[in-house]
Design brief:
heterotrimer; A mainly alpha (309); B mainly alpha (294); C alpha/beta (274); A: 309 residues; mainly alpha; MetI-like fold; two-stranded antiparallel sheet; 2 strands; 77% helix; flat; C: 274 residues; alpha/beta; Rossmann fold; 7-stranded mixed sheet; globular; phosphate transmembrane transporter activity (chain C); Phosphate ABC transporter ATP-binding protein (chain C)
Amino acid sequence: MKSTQQLERQLKRRSKAAKLEIWGRMVSLTALLLIVAVVVGIIGFVASKGIATFTSNHVNLWDFLSGKNWNPGITDAHGKPEVGALPMIVGSFLITILSALVATPFAIGTAVFMNEISPNKGAKILQPVTELLVGIPSVVYGFIGLSVVVPTTRALFGGSGFGILSGTCVLFVMILPTVTSMSADALRAVPRYYREASLALGATQWQTIYKVVLRAATPGLMTAVVFGMARAFGEALAVQMVIGNAALMPNSLVSPSSTLTSVLTTGIGNTVMGSLQNNALWSLALVLLLMSLVFNLIIRLIGRKGRLQ
Amino acid sequence: MNSKTQNKVAIGGLYGIAGFVVLILLALLGFILVSGVPQLSWHFLTAPGKAFLKGGGVGVQLFNSFYLLILAMLISFPIALGAAIYLYEYAKDNWLTTTIRTAIEILSSLPSVVVGLFGFLFFVVKLHLGFSILSGAFALTFFNLPLLARSIEDSLRTVSDVQREGGLALGLSRWETVSRVILPAAVPSILTGVILSAGRVFGEAAALIYTAGQSAPALNFADWNPFNISSPLNPMRPAETLAVHIWKINSEGIMPDAKAISSGSSAVLVIAILLFNFAARYLGKRLYKRLTSA
Amino acid sequence: MFVNNDVMNATTKEERHVIQLNDPEHPVILSTEGLHVYYGKKEALFEGDLQFASNQITALIGPSGSGKSTYLRSLNRMNDRIATVTGKIMYRGVDINQPDIDVYEMRRRVGMVFQRPNPFAKSIYDNIAFALRLRGVTDRHQLDEIVETSLKQAALWDQVKDDLNKSALALSGGQAQRLCIARAIAIKPDILLLDEPASALDPVSTGQLEDTLLSLKAHYTIIIVTHNMQQAARISEYTAFFNQGRVLEYDTTSHIFTNPSVQVTSDYVSGNFG
């Protein structure tokens, strides 16, 4: 009986392992909570700064979203500051959609080639090259845009060469590797027997690709494209270097324009903290942040739909 | 058009697209290397920059890039590791975990300029760190954390659950099992992820222009006391990196040989990232081999 | 005709037959009382109370999904995170299923070896030594000695004694499994639980493993889950037959395999189902 009690005491004493377990759990949980705090902090800070334009400077939200004149230092005829963000919003969306439109067929086409037509060449040449290019810094893309794309645009269409078109070209090349590599992943996830079944039924390779493989991979391909768009929308420096940075409504693809990110990059350093000029820029940052949340949401919705199928 | 011709045309088209893309990608790489490599010299890589004169180098910027990279990795790696361990080894599959995962995903999808602006607001202005290495390192940490955490979590996933059971059955706590059994087995994969993320951090500029700043004061490479203002190690000095340098000299346009310097710097960045890529593959494979063979 | 005969006999058999142990030479060391295991809402085990005799081998047999592995894994609480286990698990008079039991200390006394050999990505030596080091055994000579004894007990010493610093991942399946046994016994447990330890091994390795287990009986109480009925018959003193979450029959191995009291057991051991 005595030995039983002794054993029970031994088994109920908290061991070193149990103490370590509590310690490890706490440490790793702290690290996780730190990341969560960063996310909450970023969203909270940017939101509170971005809202100040509307709460403490009393700018009308609708004027902000639809106004075409961006000149936060100047008041218009009605005594209201000119903080119309429409040119930048339009610029950002235009450049994002155009570059995604151009990049999508190339990216998916290349992914299909890599995965379906010539897996050998794909694995040997295309995959390493795309993976490498995914990692090229965006300033390098911007610099190449500046030294190759802008002069070419200038030669072809006249003007300065800066503008939406140059920005689109740069972003197209920049998101191409990302979208290609994600599309290839999506195609790779389609089970082999889908293709075999289709080919066994007498379908040609193209019919198999078009009707079976692409269809089965649609959610993954859409995710790839939206991911590319999110990257294009949020890209700052590469775009800022080639777009011309004129906060005007873009009236042609080859006239200097601006995007949310380009105005932010050039503006934040030149304004005084707490001033309307500065607050208005934070409102642009808030728009940027909200859009990135929207892209995130879209990717999630696609993922959920893909799972349901 | 019957299905056979259609097939031929379509496949031909795909060959065309793939060929065109390869052409673009190779032209891109070719341009960077052809225009940049001739600029590279010992002088270019080590000399300090000159603002209004030709013939400056990128020595200071290059040093800053590496210093920031190392600091950012030193801060972000333990945090990312801890977070990944909690998420994969401890977290229960419930709404709270899902929410936290979503938060991390949001952080990874935030434009880096937004991360940089937050760094500016919080570290530079609120905490009075000014444009400094420290502010930059924190901004890079935020930029790096979510992707690194996810890559480590994926590495943990590659280690089979039977290894975890093996540790637990020996009377080890989950924490001891993870730190003594699972992590060592996941090292090759974790290392690959870390090096790849280092490449991304190395080339990042948007998060840095308002945190680490856009100026590169001359450094005295003989002075390694971190409290001296001209010491390379001083964490409170502004530190323009190579990537920021490319952006800066191209948007300012006061440097007469900005183009040559940018070409050279771009080549350095791309070559560095190439090396990171190769190192990641090589080391990952090698370590894995060492782990599994005699 | 033969099959019909069998069915005729069925009427004379009991529905459930579980003996109580009473062997003074091999007293009961572990037993369960009112053990129930739930995965979520689903009850995986609801009638599985057994007693285990010390320094004997007890085999748990039964078809897939019968609850035998679930039962075994509950014994050292490896199911804690994935299932709810209620009831008592009495180990030398102490209920180790109480929440305030230190599971880590308990598992050092009730060790386990798994179906798939799971050597760690370390050297052969470190696979055995590292759990000891974590518990404060740092003396090199002492470690060397324990490693050697454990490997000898697991009948692996002669094959690996010159390669102790090589990666354990390079071992063959049978060697790896014996290394796992060596690893488990290095921390000197009281009871060794084995969950189908030979199912991933070839016949020769299986035979060696069985010899190892028979020689370990002198030092440890062994409970083994197996799909292989010949194996149970060859090595165990007692056998429990599980079916659909219940222990249908528990008796000496010779009784179970020669003259089972329950019809389903008889069908199972004669290969009529499962």
